[in-house]
Amino acid sequence: xxxxxxxxxxxxxxxxxxxxxxxxxxxxxxxxxxxxxxxxxxxxxxxxxxxxxxxxxxxxxxxxxxxxxxxxxxxxxxxxxxxxxxxxxxxxxxxxxxxxxxxxxxxxxxxxxxxxxxxxxx
Length: 122
Description:
There is one protein chain. The chain is mostly beta strands. The protein contains one helix and eleven strands, in the order ββββββββββαβ. The strands form three sheets. Strands 1-2-3-10-5-8 form a six-stranded antiparallel β-sheet, with no helix packed on it. Strands 7-6-9 form a three-stranded antiparallel β-sheet, with no helix packed on it. The protein has a two-stranded antiparallel ribbon with strand order 4-11. A hairpin with a 2-residue loop joins β6 (59-64) and β7 (67-72). The longest helix is centred in the last third of the chain and has 4 residues, at 104-107. The radius of gyration is 14 Å and the shape is globular.
């Protein structure tokens, strides 16, 4: 289905005090705009989806594949399916996540690891 959407018209979902998100999904791909306040930590997790993270502003530190990788404004990180990872916002950050296929747990709102106390401020 053809879609033409402005971010200002997409629902801004507050998952916890440090993490907001907007999502646009097609049949086979999903784009999410994620806003993280400095100190927001997403617990380690993995998923069947390939993920591309593009930092529009700020920086995220990822613990992934035995390494710490800081991804900054203008940089991209490609995460293979099923690879455990944990990001932390080292600055207030706006990023775009692209998932293939779309994240069903996000669409169904069964993504408890992102909600409430599971994402903490250091």
